[in-house]
Amino acid sequence: SLDNIRRHAAFTVNFLILKHHFNGSGQRVLHVDSKNYYGGNWASFSFSGLLSWIKENQQKTDTDECEDWKKLILENEEVIPISKKDKTIQHVEDFCFGDQDSAEDVEEAGALPKMPVFGAPGVEGVAQEPEKECPPVESALLEAENQEPDKAAGTEPASATEGRDADITSENESSPSTASGEPALELGKTEVAPSEISAQEPKKITYSQIVREGRRFNIDLVSKLLYARGLLIDLLIKSNVSRYAEFKNATRILAFREGKVEQVPCSRADVFNSRQLTMVEKRMLMKFLTFCLEYEQHPDEYQGCFRDCWKTQKLTPSLQHFILHSIAMVSETDSSTLEGLQATKKFLQCLGRYGNTPFLFPLYGQGEIPQCFCRMCAVFGGIYCLRHSVRCLVVDKESGRCKAIVDHFGQRISANYFIVEDSYLSESVCTKVCYRQISRAVLITDQSVLNTDSEQQVSVLTVPPVDPGKPAVCVIELCSSTMTCMKDTYLVHLTCPSTKTAREDLEPVVQKLFNLNPEKEAENEEQEKPRVLWAVYFNMRDSSGVEKSSYDGLPSNVYVCSGPDSALGNDCAVKQAETIFQEMFPTEEFCPPPPNPEDIIYDEDEIVPEESGFSNSPETKPESATEESSSGDSAAVKKEDNEG
């Protein structure tokens, strides 16, 4: 048996954080996943992988499964069936704005041989990482925050130092001090030849080119950024998981005002160099930002709604717009003054740690974060079984505790604790649960929403709602140097809490920012907009914030992880992981710094074969799981081979 087992066909950041800590605290971990890729709704796909994912979710069908496993249930046991269908993704609609027929016979460069079924061995998704190129100049690993800027500039990317703050390195000079008062290291901007300046006519990109270069894309199902002083960054540094990842600083914060996209000044230097603000507005803005950093000292001034605070500070409409939608990024009608001030302070405190904005983005996409924790867990003996589904949880009637699972091979796997992703609980368990939804859109475009001399920009834009009571839309635009799209294209993510289907929620914003009819004659204003080459819309379930008591009949040793939430950061996932860990092991420290694997000395007597709960798989050893599991699905392949 295993000390911890996870029945999860949608591997989320919450649990992958937990798995790393379970291994670090001496627990044995088995990850059982019916999908053939890591990450579930946190995953990233190449373009062909995403097309397969779209097809799978558009053609969901119930499968008839053999129920011989029921013979394994004893008289003193009962079962909690696992949901056979993933209902977290709905209303998937994809659109190609080019000649789709021309790409019928085009093969993806460097792709593995195509398999007939999405989920079969060897298809895209088994190894989510494409053939990675050398990271660009502006890519970097986390380094010690106390490193001097002049020493960091011009260095190669380096691994994070253990348990310390970190800085992003680049080939550029360090930027001036920001509003937070700390020296900032701004990521280098790749110099481009005059012929490549974006002011020229953008290159014509065809659909066949996108298909051919599909492995250049790493398209996230969920769009998030890492706050420079957020919980996830601190966790990556403390746990030393940051050694497996590289990051790029978000280079600019944008605003959409009066029908135009413009850049928002963030740092002190940006504010005083800005031509968008008058001198009076600059003084007013700096005074308000200083107040936000010290708001706890003035409790009488932050009562009521956030917009009431503007009246006391006498902010102009343009300043109100910048603060609400680009700095605090909160709702105008639903947010209290305290929530707005807290969000503004968080934004300001993150400035200057790694650059001129508060945000970092992982190279190769957000889907790298789950895989980073997978690798660290595997180093310390975590075992992964992909393409390995589970039929039910087995509960002891007398104690009321879950004692085992039954997998699709009909074998029982025993454990002390079970962690399940919300989407795999049956409807009978979730009758009292009320879910929210997230509207998502992913676009491939031919140019940036705001062209500058540098094409390599990572931009964050919040589009305010047209109608009162509707949510604002968060737009994240990624350039090719983030290793998420091919050259001369941009990958654009749109996210907001759902009120209708994703297309109904987000298409009005897409129409404001982009040209959806590139082949037709359009007005000059439309021609200046970036062309959308391809788009997909879908709704994703938001199960964050659901209390365990909302689920009917769950044993006390079964814990539930939620999927992604609609927030820009990752704090919710980290907090949930820590909460579950402390419930399971209240005397253990959460996230202790791990030892370096090369420093661990094993006694010969301790290195013995271990079954790890698989009674029919004596060949499966921790050593094999350590190295092979990080490559994708070796544990599952071995298991299936042995059973076959």
TrEMBL record:
Q: What is its main location?
A: cytoplasm
Write out the biased-composition intervals (Polar residues): 169-180
Family indicated by similarity: Belongs to the Rab GDI family.
- Pfam families under this entry? RAE1_2_domI_C
Q: Where is this region: Disordered?
A: 144-186, 589-644
Query: Which InterPro entries does the UniProt record give?
Result: FAD/NAD-bd_sf, GDP_dissociation_inhibitor, Rab_escort, RAE1_2_domI_C
Q: Name one GO molecular function term.
A: GDP-dissociation inhibitor activity
Keywords from UniProt, A to Z, are: Cytoplasm, GTPase activation
Spell out the Acidic residues composition-biased ranges: 600-609
> A Gene Ontology biological process annotation?
vesicle-mediated transport
Which function does this protein serve?
A: Substrate-binding subunit (component A) of the Rab geranylgeranyltransferase (GGTase) complex. Binds unprenylated Rab proteins and presents the substrate peptide to the catalytic component B. The component A is thought to be regenerated by transferring its prenylated Rab back to the donor membrane.
Instruction: Output the Gene Ontology cellular-component terms.
Output: cytosol; nucleus; Rab-protein geranylgeranyltransferase complex
Instruction: Give the superkingdom in one word.
Output: Eukaryota
Q: Cellular location of this protein?
A: Cytoplasm, Cytosol
Q: Where is the RAE1/2 domain?
A: 438-566
The protein depicted here goes by the name: Rab proteins geranylgeranyltransferase component A
What organism is listed for this UniProt entry?
Athene cunicularia (Burrowing owl)
